[in-house]
Amino acid sequence: MNSKYMAMAYNEALMALKDNEVPVGVVIVKNDCVIASTHNLKEHFNCSIYHAEILAIIEASRKISNWRLSDCDMYVTLEPCPMCASAIKQARIKNVYCGLANSDLKNGEIIKSIFQSNDINPKVNFYNNLYVEEVKKIMQQFFDEKRKI
What pLDDT score was predicted for residue 149? Predict the structure, then answer.
């Protein structure tokens, strides 16, 4: 894990927080070069699939002109949802480095199942809870603000 890239994903999450989005940020790296960085944009575009992971996969695929993101690493601030885990698996991303586990423990079981299956696409190496305090703080800030409304 390269902490520089996790810090970049965290900065993306801060931008999401500023934009009143769930503060999730993502960076995709290939050969030590950032090929995508973004954050959640569901509220901005009123679209349920505009999660940071999906948007980063789209950006990275365009950048390298290939939907196969083999040998790429993803740095994400919050554990992916099952939809995003499936997209990561389909994109063939090799490693996912995650800042904080989702508070829904069932989510972790589902994504582990998605990432570990080796049926069609290769398994995804998943490393979790690598930026816990920082991510926990902005998630708490986001939800505290929502509860005030």
Answer: 58
Q: Please list the residues that pair with 100 across neighbouring strands.
A: 78
Q: What HEC string does the chain produce?
A: CCHHHHHHHHHHHHHHHHCCCCCCEEEEEECCEEEEEEECCHHHHCCCCCCHHHHHHHHHHHHHCCCCCCCEEEEEEECCCHHHHHHHHHHCCCEEEEEECCCCHHHHHHHHHHHHCCCCCCCCEEECCCCHHHHHHHHHHHHHHHHHC
User: Is the Cβ–Cβ distance between 96 and 73 less than 8 Å?
Assistant: yes
Retrieve residue 133's tokens. Answer: 């305090």
Q: Is the pTM of this model over 0.85?
A: yes
Tokens of 69: 């993101």
**CA distances (Å), 78 to each of 26, 30, 46, 87, 132, in order?**
9, 20, 21, 15, 9
**pLDDT one-digit tens code per residue, 55-97:** 999 999 999 999 999 999 999 999 999 999 999 999 999 999 9
**Catalytic residue set:** 53
- Who has greater pLDDT, 126 or 1? 126
